[in-house]
Structures are given as structure tokens and as C-alpha cells.
Recover the amino acids of this structure.
């Protein structure tokens, strides 16, 4: 009879072998991400990194989030785009150390509606940046934080 420890050692080695040989795809290895985008400090910089020249404000983008969040460590944020041919949705938190909190690719034929939870250090504007039909659009909403999420 094998012990649980032996089983874990064997299965852990097998997973490592599969990852090294390429059987576990990029999703499992988490190596295909845009580091430069996550290091930007402003909305305009992110648009440039993503290949755009500018973004215009749009009422066809809705940010679904509380006006006041009691705990900045977990702030629920949703974005719904009514723009045709939506290709991507990004969520930015203006006063966080890294403004880009999330970036979602929207496959063709998919409902452009994303939801996540972000960490916010303090009261800040939250931007939803949408790429639709090759152009960039944004919407903004201020969210007040009563208890800081980044160590506050």
C-alpha cells in the first residue's frame, strides 16, 4: 500500500513533467500576458500600449459597482458594453499602484458583460476601457472606499 505522501510526490512530479513537455497549455503556465500593459499608470498610456491613439467617452458602457465600498480588499465591479463588435474590456483603478486591474478578451459572438472583484487602496475613479471595432471607448465612475484594501 502506498502512503498519501508517496501519491502526492508522484502526482506532483507528473504534473511538472506534463508542464515541461508542453502538454499543459499557456493557460496553465500563465506565461502569455501583457506585462507592459499592467505597468502603465494612466488610461492614455494603456490605450497606446494596446495599439490605439486615443479613447473617447461613451454612454454605451455601463460600470456596475457600488458607490461606496465598505472594504477596499474586495470591490465587485462589472462592465457591460452596448457597443457593437466589442473585442476587449479592461478595468482600471486610477489611484492604485498599477492602474490596470483586469483585461478581458471578448470573443466574437460573446455577450460583452464581465464581472470581477478588484482591490482598491483608496477612494478612486474606476475606468472601463472598451475596444470595439478597432477603436477605444471609456466610461468612469467614482467609488468611495471606507476601509483601504491595500494595507489600510
Amino acid at each position: 500500500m502506498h502512503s498519501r505522501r508517496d501519491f502526492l510526490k508522484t502526482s506532483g512530479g507528473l504534473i511538472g513533467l506534463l508542464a515541461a513537455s508542453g502538454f499543459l497549455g499557456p493557460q496553465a503556465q500563465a506565461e502569455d500576458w501583457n506585462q507592459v500593459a499592467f505597468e502603465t499608470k494612466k488610461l492614455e498610456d494603456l490605450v497606446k500600449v494596446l495599439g490605439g491613439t486615443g479613447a473617447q467617452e461613451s454612454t454605451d458602457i455601463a460600470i456596475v459597482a457600488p458607490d461606496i465600498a465598505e472594504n477596499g480588499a474586495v470591490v465587485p465591479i462589472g462592465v457591460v458594453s452596448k457597443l457593437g463588435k466589442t473585442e476587449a474590456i479592461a478595468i482600471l483603478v486610477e489611484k492604485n499602484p498599477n492602474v490596470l486591474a483586469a483585461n478581458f478578451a471578448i470573443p466574437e459572438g460573446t455577450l460583452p458583460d464581465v464581472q470581477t472583484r478588484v482591490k482598491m487602496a483608496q477612494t478612486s475613479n474606476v475606468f472601463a476601457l472598451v475596444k470595439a471595432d478597432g477603436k477605444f471607448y471609456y466610461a468612469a465612475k467614482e467609488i468611495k472606499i471606507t476601509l483601504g484594501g491595500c494595507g489600510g
